[in-house]
Amino acid sequence: SGASLRYSTGTGGEGSEGEGAGLGSSDSGGSGFSLAASALPERRRPGGGRPRYEVVRELGAEEVRWFYREDRKTWKPFIGYDSLRIELAFRALAGSSGGGGGPAGVEPVCVRSGLYEVDVASAESYPVYWNQTEKIPVMRGQWFIDGTWQPLEEEESNLIEQEHLNRFKGQQLQESFDMEAPKPVDGKEAIHSLKLSRNHVDWHSVDEVYLYSDATTSKIARTVTQKLGFSKASSSGTRLHRGYVEEATLEDKPPQTSHIVFVVHGIGQKMDQGRIIKNTAMMRDTARKVEEKYFSNLATHVEFLPVEWRSKLTLDGDTVDSITPDKVRGLRDMLNSSAMDIMYYTSPLYRDELVKGLQQELNRLYTLFCSRNPEFEEKGGKVSIVSHSLGCVITYDIMTGWNPVRLYEQLLQKEEEELEDRWMSYEEQRLLEELYITKQRLREIEERLHGLKASTIAKPPVLKFKVENFFCMGSPLAVFLALRGIRPGNSGSQDHILPRTICNRLLNIFHPTDPVAYRLEPLILKHYSNISPVQIHWYNTANPLPYEHMKPSFLNPTKEATSVPDSESASAAPSPTTSPVMVRRHYGESITNIGKASILGAASIGKGLGGMLFSRFGRSSTTPQTMETGKEGAEGEDKKATAVGTPPLPHSSSGFLEPTVELEHRIDFELREGLVESRYWSAVTSHTAYWSSLDIALFLLTFMYKQDQEETDKSNLDTL
């Protein structure tokens, strides 16, 4: 184990970040800083590194390292900035309790980019922005295992440290600085030993400390190996280091947060209340890896915060549970906890409660974040939202203030217009005029009453911030909008479904086999149903083409020639902006084509329905016949389309669309399918596969860092 040793024991190791801050603690163990150079003579290794003191002294605050442990995994070290501040709080607490005045209250220490706080007195950490039942234990590390640099348990570490200071404090350390490999301890007798509950520690010198297990098997193995000629230390000992490998400095701090992302869950949160917290943690960890690889030159940082809005809602209480039959109870409970959320949202009774729950949680998180980071708003910090599944629909309704009452009023107005258009008797006209005057009078009274006191009708929910980017993942939003009467227009603006004044950019991300996800672009311009979504780049793609420079590509029609009356073909000539919805290679047949199939015969109906059901999970273009068709090129496509009587879409021989009416910005972005994954299996798993995807993390950060990256590139050019 000694072959990999790089640092000496007596000083707690020499760090790779070694310039340090020159910070050390006073020998009294208090919380104050004192410059190490003035307190004790120091020497540095020729290549830099941590100061090496000539005599054994108490560990400085910068030599101690604090750790945390999540999900009962290994201990993870806090960064230097966090560890140093925790240690100072610990020493302040120890100093105040040692003074005889009883333990004084110490402020919690904010750690991990401000997401958690550490209570030094209870040695626990807890999240700031969300609730978590399990507290995260923290530990003070003084002695560390060679190689892994994992800390010894605090109780043992304290005993070893106390014994080390009692025996060696003030003693001279070795003069040699060539400590890349340890000197062998073979033949050396231990100069000091300490018995612990299950182990014992031997000091072969001030710098050479080994831990041995006292378990029976370890003792037997040690006896055998020693008889074979091996030393005790090399056969069964674990070398220990005093102080952490890396010195903690205040400069080792996280970058400033310039962009916060609220992550909103969909259905099923009641079934697994901590799921969104775990999913957001996965997304955050994945984004950190991407930041380190692609955006390390930027001095800013994107933070992800989970928005858990479901568990606080009471809704119907336990009424649905009480009417649920007992047979197959597990499956029924699962459906009640997941799919029932969709029914709640379509219910006029509970919809407002769901909307209000999410709106209040978003505003609470934003207010809390700004109160803890006052410079965020001052420096123009931005907010984006990532929503999943049903969460996309609720977030959209909050941003736009959409309410079914408004839809009802539109329907009433439409009925009135239809009444005016048809012939009516004199009596009907008189009653209609009377009704119109009464409604006008009612509106006036309501307005006067509203002016006197606050209205009991809830106002549309309003967010306390403007949304920079709204990312939808696995979203059924398009279906909800279509059922609300949204139809394609002639303008390529996002304003048709989400005004830019509310949200700067709308992006719809989906896996090609996600059965819950739908496209949004054809709701803005109809002919985009024949244009493939933008393919999201692989995470490891070298020099990918920027998304704004990617040209829209045409989805090849695969429809077989059938006889269609000439009159229909003449009347169906569309304008370039309202091109017909043709059979789509990726997304199955459209409803209009199924309607035509019903005219052409029962066989066509079966084929059309089969295409609709199965081409969503398996692409029809993979059949041999279609593969041959694809080889014919653009000319063959034109001929086939003309044979059917449907004019071809304007496209060039390269497969890209010629400029007609195009979207200002692309909205639909599709993940690339794995080369070996089963489409039927991925149809089950794809709806929840977004959280840990490196491709999605890179995609999100590309858009959120876009402005920062452009400003950095511009400043670099100006410098040149």
Automatic annotation (TrEMBL):
Residues 463-706 form the DDHD domain. InterPro entries: DDHD_dom (IPR004177), PA-PLA1 (IPR058055). Residues 1-51, 554-580, 620-656 are annotated as: Disordered. GO terms for cellular component: cytoplasm. Signal peptide: none annotated. Residues 41-51, 629-641 have a biased composition (Basic and acidic residues). Residues 10-32 have a biased composition (Gly residues). Residues 555-568 have a biased composition (Polar residues). Residues 569-580 have a biased composition (Low complexity). It holds the Pfam family DDHD. It comes from the Eukaryota. GO terms for molecular function: metal ion binding; phospholipase activity. Belongs to the PA-PLA1 family. This is DDHD1 Phospholipase. It comes from Mionectes macconnelli. The gene is Ddhd1.
